[in-house]
Amino acid sequence: MKTIKISQTLKNIDKYNQLKWARIVSLLARRSTQKFPSRQDLALRVRQVELRFPIPQNPQAVSNNPGLTIPHHPEHIDPQHWHELVVGSAIAPLIAHLNFSSLHFSYVGGEHEAWERPMISDKLSRTNTGSLSIRLLELYSHLDAGGWWCNSGVDPRTFANLSPGEQPQIKEWGCYKPNRPRPKTVKKDGFTVAVEGKFIKYEHPPSVDLSIFLLDVPGVIAQNIYSKAGVNPTDSDRLSGFWYCVWKHNIPITITEGAKKAASLLSHGHAAIGLPGISSGYRSPKNEWGKKIGDSYLADELAVFATKSREIKICFDHETKPETKLNIQRDIWKTGSLLQEFGAVVKVITLPGPDKGGFYSGTGRRKF
């Protein structure tokens, strides 16, 4: 595996890219008061705006236009979440619009929307009436305080059996970032105790196998990635979606941790797959006592992209804690080694710090 180090001197946030998307979405918002009924319709409208209002290719021309600002948040994303995603994480507004949503109490359903998203497993403990058990209701009571949800996208395991132009299956799985996260707990002397100052920032559906994030990508960003890779998918391929084209045409991918980082990298023109955790790219079989009983193997969904000669970059956060650094290095080595067994060309991106994920806000984009 080849290691690429990003220079600390590259701290130039790509404001041009953000302003470009700000212009597209703000123009769309002024011309339509309706929600987009489909991904195809959204892509069509974006294309129409780009053709009618061409975006200057010269970044200097854009920076000299004071009228370009981050667009107003859409109806389905709260202002603080929109700011976190678009400003704080450098996610293109259209990608944020397509993949994220703020969840609230539903007066129609009589409960918070957050309970519908993570609680999808048939294995969850329930009462005779079908309601969740008291223990689960108490454990996840913080969901009622609201937060944002991100869908995980399509299931790549369906790609190989698609008919021409057919769209892949959409997964129910995703992640929820609560506004008020619950404390992280550990077992100590037979009791469950909270770890002071530690919280579980992201919730994934309990009692469900972990998945990967293959986020929805608008056509203009998809075309940018195709062009960089030197491929031109057919109309039929494009109907099957961006990730189908990435798979079929062996387009280089980047593996990172989390939905937001994947969304940010996609916004900057990289086909990025998000893992829910640094060790989620592979599975290690264990017995009922938690002891490893077999060889580790690639997670099924990630294995779909482990094809011969495909360039795969692994890019995790910068870390300073010795124990955490060792864990990251271990998981990079394990994931990378398994990818190489399939013939992939693996490279490792090391971020300069001092911020854990400083790169994802735009620093070092050209080197990457």
From TrEMBL:
Pfam families (alphabetical): DUF3854
Superkingdom of origin: Bacteria
Limits of the DUF3854 domain: 242-357
Record-linked PANTHER family: SLR0554 PROTEIN (PTHR34985)
Protein name (database record): DUF3854 domain-containing protein
Species: Nostoc sphaeroides CCNUC1
